[in-house]
Amino acid sequence: MRASLIQIAVNEDETVEARRLRAAALVREQAGADLVVLPELWTTGAFAFEAFDAAAEPLRGPTYEAMAEAAGDAGVWLHAGSVPERGTDGRLYNTSLVLSPSGDLAASYRKIHRFGFDKGEAVLMGAGREPVTVRVPDTTTLGVATCYDLRFPELFRSLVDAGAEVLVVPAGWPERRRSHWTLLARARAVENQAFVLACGTAGTHAGVPQAGHSIVVDPWGEVLAEAGAGEEVLTVDLDTAKVARTREQFPALKDRVLGLEPPRQQREG
Ligand SMILES: NC(=O)CCC(=O)C(=O)O
Questions:
Q1: Is-catalytic flag, 147?
Q2: ipTM > 0.95, yes or no
Q3: Alpha-carbon distances of 116 from 90, 121, 139, rounded to whole Å
Q4: Residue 193, exposed/middle/buried by CB under 10 A (0-12, 13-18, 19+)?
Q5: Less CB within 10 Å around the terminal CB: N or C of the chain?
Q6: pLDDT of 49-103, one tens digit each?
Q7: Which of 85, 121, 147, 165 is catalytic?
Q8: Taking CB atoms and a 6 Å cutoff, what residues make up the pocket around ligand 1?
Q9: Among the atoms of ligand 1, which is closest to the Cα of residue 114?
């Protein structure tokens, strides 16, 4: 499977509409890839909280339309990153879109773990409740997660339990915590014996410099490719059969012990 991660720059001197056109052109340039990935909330920037409301769109809104056309022209599966979705309940959600080469909406995923503690996304957006996998015919099963989700291993385990072999993580991760990004991407790959494709943004928006450094990790935890800090397309050929080989040769996933008792508190002294 050839995967291309588009680490697009999100800067405030570019309008949402201009960036959408640029992203569509970048997707078209990836013809020949099997899977193309864009980052989290790349229309506004993940930290541009004040922009979410004005840029919010329905699931099949302008970003879906533009990306469906681009995926169709390129003949690729497209994880179009996430958009600020205005749900039919009127709430905002951080929603990822996965499109087939014919432009159909193959899957959507509302980010489960919202970032910001008691500020920003955590208060402005609703939380998703459902982990999502999507089958890419003739190749593999993708498990999807978004940015801050990377810190919650139980979500990834549920994706693996549902058959995921390639974990796709669009993000808008800040430079300030870049060491966590790399470490967590590798940890999720090793513990789940799966590929991790983690696609971040470049540039600076809302005063938050972005880490870039999109990364592709194999099921053994080896880094197959890593981007720099600027706008870049990272293209990697994945030997997807390596997932089954790794799980067979080092069957740690089979040694899981489920349904543990609650921790017993030892009496001190
Ligand atoms: N957009 C995000 O989810 C940011 C996550 C983040 O900055 C962190 O986990 O650290």
A1: yes
A2: yes
A3: 21, 6, 36
A4: buried
A5: C
A6: 999 999 999 999 999 999 999 999 999 999 999 999 999 999 999 999 999 999 9
A7: 147
A8: 40, 46, 115, 147-148, 151, 172-174, 177, 180
A9: 3
